[in-house]
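Practice problem: predict the structure.
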Amino acid sequence: MVYSLSYRRPERQSISSSAASLSGDNKQKSIHESVKSGSSGMSHGIPEALSFDRIIAGGVCPPCTVRDFMNFLKYIELSAENLQFYLWFRDYSKRFNELPENERVLSPEWTGEKESHAEPTTNPKNVNSEAAALFKGTDFASDPKANESEKSGSNPFFTPPRTPTSVDRREGGDSVDSFDDSMTTGNTGKVNHTQRASGAFESAGLKWKPLTIQPYREEINRVISIYVADGGSRQLNLSSKERTALLHALQSTTHPSAFRDVIATVEWSLRCQAHPNFIRWTICNGNRPRVIFARGLGIGGIVAGLLVAIILTLSTASRAWRVISLIGFFIGISTLIAAWKGMCVVLHGMHHRHLRPWELFTSDDEPQEPDMKMDSMDTLESHASSNSWEDEPWVARYEKRNIVRKIFDREVWIQEPALRQIQDTIFLQAILGALVMSAVAVGIFCAIPKGNYF
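Answer:
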C-alpha cells in the first residue's frame, strides 16, 4: 500500500551534502536547511535511525536499505531515475575531486550561465600536431578510444559506468568499468550516446560542441543521453529551463558544479517526497490481499460485538452481561485501525512481514530472506537500460497465484529495530483507541433499558 501525502515545497537555501566539497557553495541554490530527514515537517515522525542520509549511507537493515528504497521507487512510485541519478552524482563528485590538479583544471567550476555563451578557448579540431601527439593515448585525446579491457560489470542501480582516468590506470585500470556504445534501450537497438547528447545540445540552441579533452567528457555524454536528452531511457522530470541551463553548463565544463541546480531538485524530491512515502510504505507488513483480509476481520469483529450487544439488550439478561460485547468491539476496532495503517496484527505479533512480489521469485534455489549486506551499492547490478519492469518474469508468476495463497504468502523477519519500534507504536495506538471506543460503545448499550423480549 502506498500512502499519499501532501507537501509544501520549501525554499531552497543550501546545497546537498554530496556536493558540499565543491567550492563556491555560497552561490548555490539548494535545499532548505530544515529539510533534513527526521527533523523537517516533510518527514515528521520519522526517527533519525531511518533518515534519508542514514539510508543512503547504508546504516540501516532490511527492509529499509538502499536496495529496498530503489525497489520502492521502481515498482511503486515509478521514479527510480531520481535515486539512480543521485547515487551516480555522489560517486562522480568523489571521483572528480580525486583527480590530479592538472586534470581538474581542464574543467573549471561552473559559476554562472554567462559562461555558456563564451566560445571554447580550445577547439579539438584545431589542436596542432604537437598537442595531438602529447595527448595521444591519454584521457585527453581528441578521439578517445574505448577501453579494450572492458569488463562485464556495471555500475550499481542501473547508473552509467564511469570512464577510466589516469588515476584509475595508475591504480589498476583493468578493474574500471568503461563505456559500451552497444548499450541497448528495449527494442530500439543500439544507441549512440554521443550522437544523442549532440542532439540534446542542438535542441537547446547551443552552437559550440563540448571539449573532448576534459576529464569524464565521454561519461557526461552518456549521462546526457540517458538522463537529460528527450527519449532517454531514464529521463529526469526536468523543466525546460532546468534542462537548458544544465546543457549550457555541460557544454563548457564537466565539473560537478554544473549539476548544482538539477541535483538540488532531484534531492528535494527524494528527501521530501520519496523518502517519507518509502518509510510509510515499509510500515505495511502485509501485502494488499492480506490487509484487505485484515480489514474484513476487523469489520466482522465489530459486527459480532454489535449483534451480541443488541441481543443482550433486547433480552431479559441483566445489564452486566452486555459487557461481553466489549470483546468483539475491541478485537474488531483494533484490527481495523491497524489495517488502516497497512498492518496485520498477526504478522506484527511475530514482527514478520510478507515478501514483496519481486522478492518472491528472485531465485528458486536460494533463500528469499534479504541479506543485511544487500544495502551496499556494490551488490546491486543490472544490465537493463531502463526502469521498465512489466515484462519481468515475476509479474506473470505472481498474477497466477490464487487469492488464498497471496493472503498467506511467505513471511520474513523484520530486521530493522527502528521500523519495529514504529510498528509497536502504531499497534499500541490501535489498542488504546480500540479500548476507548469499545468502552464508549458498551456504555451506550448498558444505558439502554432491557427489552424483556425473550
